[in-house]
Amino acid sequence: MKKNIININLKTINQKLRQALPGSGRPAGRRPRGTRRNNKKSSRKRRKYRVVSLRGKLIIMAAALFMVACIFTVIYMVLGNYDGLGLRRGMPENPYNMSAFTKEGGRVYYEDDTYTSLTGIDVSYYQKEIDWEKVKADGVDFAMIRLGYRGSESGEIQMDSRFKENLKGARRAGLDVGVYFFSQAVSAEEAIEEARYVIRHIRGKGVHYPVAFDMEPVNGENDRISGLDQTERTQIADAFCKVIERNGYTPVIYGNPHWLQTRLEMGYLTGYDTWLAHYTSQTEYPYAFRIWQYSDRGRVDGIKGRVDLDIMLIEK
Question: Is the pLDDT of residue 59 over 70?
Answer without folding.
Answer: yes
